[in-house]
Specification:
Number of domains: 1
Largest sheet: 6 strands, antiparallel
Shape: globular
Number of helices: 10
Strand content: 15-25%
Distance between the termini: 68 Å
CATH superfamily: DD-peptidase/beta-lactamase superfamily
Length: 328
């Protein structure tokens, strides 16, 4: 009897593990200025955000800086709880201190979980209170499908989000705290004689497209995630991909999405200015959908299929200010 009970228990644990670690493939591209959705795939499908969670931790940090509750030189004390966090971590011991400025750069580049918790404990007085602030801010930003349960993004099967919500969060960081956004373009940060490379490998110029932020993430349950922002001329887009099989695959998809969607913006402007001439030239002016899929078939996943995208109506969100800085 005990043998059968043990086998049943192992079976249940195995099945639960299989379902708990099945990443969801999802992607979205939005126009940063208008909030308009340009491309969308599984935008409402819930999955774990992994370290994209740190975007909210950083947003609340920037908010505290803007309200002058803290400064970049404020010292953050590492608690036993923070020091015990799973890697990726900076590896500081309980009782060690780090300036808030260095802590922010550590989150942006190394994505250290211990520093994320240390910031949360300092700003919220304890981690639980800070998590409540995260969810309060999520409600303000209308992140309807997001629940935060820790400040780092460490695996929790109840901590869920969608690409749509992560795009809104990334947009809020750009629009409400533009004087801090440039920090996300940092490619390397050095602390105590150790240098950490930013995990966002797309940073920099690729032709006439410049990627200048913002956050990567990975846990087994989510796959490889990336929220990125790029500009070309006066246009700026935000792309979010969740559930990549590898970091390279995820990066390649985001790169392709930027290329396709920036081109779409240019094509739409050209069509709006010269609709008759374009129509006479044989250009297709019907509808707002395009596809690179043969026979116009909807792909099962953007991770393995061609690119398709749709335009949706999306209400503009209030744009905040931070000093005199502007994000193009």
């Amino acid at each position: 009897m005990r043998k059968y009970f043990l086998l049943a228990f192992i079976y249940c644990v195995t099945i639960r593990s299989v379902f708990a670690y099945t990443p969801v493939n999802a992607a979205i591209v939005i126009n940063t200025k208008t909030g308009e959705i340009i491309y969308s795939y599984n935008s409402e499908q819930k999955t774990q955000p992994a370290s994209l969670t740190k975007m909210m931790t950083l947003l609340l940090t920037f908010k505290a800086l803007q309200q002058k509750k803290v400064s970049m030189s404020t010292l953050i004390c590492i608690s036993k709880n923070a020091a015990s966090q799973q890697p990726c971590s900076l590896g500081l011991k309980a009782g060690d201190k780090i300036s808030l400025g260095d802590a922010i750069m550590t989150l942006i580049t190394k994505s250290a979980n211990d520093i994320s918790v240390a910031i949360a404990e300092h700003l919220g007085k304890d981690e639980k209170t800070f998590i409540a602030l995260m969810n309060k801010e999520a409600k303000r930003l209308d992140l309807k499908s997001t629940l935060f349960l820790n400040p780092s993004g460490w695996t929790n099967h109840r901590q869920l989000t969608t690409v749509k919500d992560m795009a809104k969060l990334a947009r809020a960081l750009l629009s409400e705290y533009p004087c801090y956004y440039h920090l996300f373009a940092t490619r390397q940060f050095c602390f105590r004689n150790k240098c950490f490379k930013n995990h966002n490998n797309l940073l920099g110029k690729n032709g006439d497209i410049v990627v200048d932020g913002i956050k990567t993430g990975f846990v087994n349950a989510s796959g490889f995630n990336l929220a990125a922002s790029a500009r070309r001329g006066k246009d700026r887009l935000i792309a979010v991909v969740l559930g990549g099989k590898t970091g390279k695959q995820r990066d390649a998809l985001v790169k392709l999405l930027f290329q396709k969607c920036f081109k779409k913006l240019v094509d739409e402007r050209r069509m709006s200015r010269y609709p008759v001439q374009i129509a006479l030239a044989g250009r297709n002016t019907k509808g707002l959908e395009k596809s690179s899929i043969k026979n116009n078939e909807k792909p099962e996943s953007p991770m393995t299929s061609g690119i398709y995208y749709r335009i949706y109506n999306h209400s503009d969100e209030k744009m905040g200010r931070c000093g005199q800085h502007k994000i193009n």
